[in-house]
Design the sequence.
């Protein structure tokens, strides 16, 4: 086994570890977010101490998810980093434009519904996935 094969295995091992870590922390963050969102109403009748604890837990899980994402991105090769960067730029731009307009629609009386911030998360996620597919097709 030569050095190139060993290096490729080491990179793949690192990427697998980073992907598993990112999946774990993302899952824990999503679970803690759901707990913070639905727990007060359905599980503990808006008890302040429990609610504050779930909010703090969610913030810690969010921080760990961000750090896992950062590590994952740092360990990608330059082409993979480029694809992610372009997908993130697309996602940020579309989310900012759509979010700003979505927030205005109710106040300028074009819609009667109250904008929900979670809608922007869906736009962001879908746009990011589209950006990843387009980037992979462009460079892959």
Sequence:
């Amino acid at each position: 086994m030569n050095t190139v094969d060993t290096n490729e295995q080491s990179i793949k091992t690192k990427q697998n570890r980073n992907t598993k870590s990112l999946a774990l922390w993302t899952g824990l963050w999503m679970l803690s977010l759901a707990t913070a969102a639905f727990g007060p109403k359905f599980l503990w009748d808006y008890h302040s101490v429990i609610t504050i604890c779930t909010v703090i837990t969610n913030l810690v899980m969010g921080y760990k998810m961000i750090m896992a994402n950062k590590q994952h991105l740092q360990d990608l090769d330059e082409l993979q980093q480029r694809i992610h960067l372009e997908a993130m730029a697309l996602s940020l731009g579309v989310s900012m434009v759509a979010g700003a307009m979505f927030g205005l629609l109710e106040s300028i009386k074009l819609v009667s519904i109250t904008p929900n911030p979670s809608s922007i998360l869906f736009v962001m996620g879908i746009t990011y996935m589209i950006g990843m597919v387009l980037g992979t097709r462009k460079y892959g």
User: Anything to note?
Assistant: The mean pLDDT is 92. Residues 77-140 form one domain.
